[in-house]
Predict the structure of Pseudouridine synthase.
Amino acid sequence: MRLDRFLSNLPCFNRQQVRLLLAQRRVRVDGCCVTDPQLEVREFSRIEVDEQLLQDPQPARYLMLHKPQGCVSATQDPEHRTVLDLLDESDKHTLHIAGRLDFNTTGLMLLTNDGQWSRRLTQPRTKLAKIYYVETEQVIEPHYIEKFSQGFYFAFEDLTTLPAELTLLGPRSARLSIVEGRYHQVKRMFGHFDNKVLRLHREAMGPLNLDPGLRPGEYRALYPEEILAI
């Protein structure tokens, strides 16, 4: 949100007062004096006018989790264990999931309280690749590769998926790179060939790779360079 809009939305200032405050250099954002009304501020910005603290932000949190099987990608569920149940964090209720996984799909999951960061990670126009390791019931034939690169028509959504890259690893295993996250997308793609997915494991989202040191159910904070990579 623009700084002038943030200030004018408060009950204590009108637009004219906001312009005057900025011109008089009485506004500070993250400890720095600010005069630009168009400065973008976030929920993690510390905003002060004179000595009055108007927004005292909570720290931004970014976690990488190795999601196990049999776990719901939700903040709460009446029947099943959720990914939040795996976290030993006092502020876990403030986190949301950036890129969900199906109940029995394993692998990389990211949780954060930074909405702008998670939107950059998941919104379609960024086209960040999601990398999956796949095992199937039937043999994955070489002609699958071309079909994956062409896309699949999903009648329910009335759309054709964007090109995906399929790399064969063995008779019934492959690595798949997609830039979308449609409902059960990978299973539906292989379903086109009547080939059931037996195991699905997300290895990476864009530049972020699952830490090989994390066992299923374990998590860690992202490193600064990983946060900035998105």
